[in-house]
Amino acid sequence: MVAACAKCCGFVGSVQAQLEVIFGEARFAPLLAALGGLPQRWQESAGAGSGSAVRCAQGCGEIYCSEACRDAHLQHSHNLLCTGPLDREDHPLLQFKYHALEHADTLLLAAQVFAFLINRAKATGGGAQATETLMRELLCFCHAPFREACRAPPGRAKDAEFYAHTDGVVNHAAGLLRAALEPHAPQEVAALFQGGNLFFSEVLGMFEYNNIDVEVASPLGAIFISRAQALVAASTSDPQAAAELQQLEALVREKEWVMRCVWGEETTGIYGDDEDLAKEGAQLLADDVDTAMGDDPVQDQKVATAAMADARIQVSQMTLEQVLKAAWPSLHGTGFFSSVARMNHSCAPNMKIEFPSNSACLTATSILNVAAGEELCISYIDQEADVQTRRRRLLEYGFTCSCSRCLEEDSMALRKAQKRLK
Ligand SMILES: [Zn+2]
Ligand SMILES: [Zn+2]
Ligand SMILES: [Zn+2]
User: Fold this and answer.
1) pTM score, whole prediction
2) What Pfam families has UniProt attached to this entry (predicted)?
3) Domain locations along the chain
4) Residue 382, CA distances (Å) to 76, 208, 399 in order
5) Tens-place pLDDT, residues 286-295
């Protein structure tokens, strides 16, 4: 949906190219054509370079923000996972990637971990023993076989059908990955699969417990804000600036309408209460979950048209400042960060996590004064929720929270209940 570097997750592509992704539908063609050379000018005024992408030299189609990212990715794991040199469709590596795209992105992340372990083991002499040492290191993190660690989609129990489906997806993926990697590193692969598919399943389970949602904000927002500020200042005396400002504003309003109507929750990051719970486990069952729309296409069309007209009105009521500040489609992913994975949870945390630069490079910052020796904590969940909701969500991480805030809100609820009884 947005082009991003396969190594650092930074946005790739010129302003023009990114606008073409957002306004991809044919009905927006006149809007883009009317902009002429403006996107190019916006790009230059922001000093954002050419935005051109670097492609994998072996022709797999992977794109990068720079040659440095391309080379680093090749050394990290892509040397074993690049599909560029493959010439047959039934190659296990291609089959693995199709399978992962169909069922769960985290399977691709697990493949990167396996390839990285092989590369690291080989760098220290290779063989089964070197591989086993690295496997033990990784299993120091909280983990469990995937079937235990994963969550069922909302409204579904972890019943026999659920287990059969997830086991099937995991085992099929593990078999394909093993076949793909074996010719490159027979000894290391033998070690990785010495317990059958258990280690593969445990790595997936480790992601379930430790992974952090990555959200990289689009650089377009900052580019448009700074350009608009310059144009507002110039527009009183310069009719050309006033005209450009008008075009910029029209574009930003159109984007806000698109965000509300065409782009779903996936890209805007606006999740409903229940969707929040539907993560990987739900993805694995995506084929079985019904869509929200009803059976009556005429009625659905009417509802959709009304919602789109409604969004038009809402957007027209926003000030220029408000539409400029509204989010652009951001990049959503998931990542395993070994340092933060060791931090415990608190509902009143003293650290916050952000992705401030145009990359998946995580920054943890203290938001309260921290005394020497005091534990650093992050919040695993939405902090705004009430104590019951928080507790329900945290149960999925396998514990009942008894942080100071939970205890306080608990006793408040108890006092209220006692008052009612009196
Ligand atoms: Zn990069
Ligand atoms: Zn490649
Ligand atoms: Zn708590």
Assistant:
1) 0.79
2) SET (PF00856)
3) 86-210, 349-421
4) 33, 17, 16
5) 444 344 445 6
